[in-house]
């Protein structure tokens, strides 16, 4: 099953197009894309019955974040060996966890403002929690995952690394710094949920390429480790980490500039496309509006 947020309404993304969930379910499920995660098991069972309803074109320009308002957003650092190596850091003995504040979330298409000159890219697989998780075992980790989507953990490196203690959450939470999409895909739709090719390209040139089988801490282990500390709630997001190829590790360093286009892709899920603009352009547009 593939679901999406089409202009603020929950839809099933089928081969024929977009099926509006509220209409197809005769109001059993609402239009709010966020609300469905609180009833995920019930919704999944309903969707498996191949609901019928009017089919609309799946207009990519109208697609928004599949999970628009999560209560908790977790980020995992140094979760690929090659990324830890390029950063010159030892492999973590336990997941390095930070948060991205929810106001950083954005959809899979559009423009993102650059707040500084050292903004970096980080393509990531994002897991969405579909069932409350507390003290979950690794063996049961996948049972608590509603689905997977593509994410970018954009990072303003100067802010992230400023001061005596790094400010990961602030450096990664500017507006637009957490785009996700284009759809949420349930694990059963994928040939191998533990081994997905992911990557991103800058202005048509690949800059990151890896497979999720290279994760140090797998999705089930992340669910287990996080839920041992606090409850994971339906609709929460877990950005699982980025592989090697970030701009800060290049020689010379390469950061995002106004006019750049970044395409982020995960096989079996889809791609996101973003163009970067100067902060003054966005501020000016907001002032005029």
TrEMBL record:
Lineage top rank: taxon: Bacteria
Which residue stretches, if any, does this entry annotate as coiled coil? Answer: none
This protein is called Fumarylacetoacetate hydrolase
**UniProt keywords, alphabetically:** Hydrolase, Metal-binding
Which Gene3D superfamilies does the entry mention?
Fumarylacetoacetase-like, C-terminal domain
PANTHER family linked to this entry? FUMARYLACETOACETATE HYDROLASE DOMAIN-CONTAINING PROTEIN 2A, FUMARYLACETOACETATE HYDROLASE DOMAIN-CONTAINING PROTEIN 2A-RELATED
Q: What Pfam family is a match for this entry?
A: FAA_hydrolase
Family per record: Belongs to the FAH family.
- Residue span, Fumarylacetoacetase-like C-terminal domain: 73-276
Q: Name one GO biological process term.
A: small molecule metabolic process
* Keyword check for Transcription: no
Please list the GO terms describing molecular function: hydrolase activity; metal ion binding
Write the lineage as a comma-separated list: Bacteria, Bacillati, Actinomycetota, Actinomycetes, Micromonosporales
InterPro entries hit by this protein: FAH, Fumarylacetoacetase-like_C, Fumarylacetoacetase_C_sf
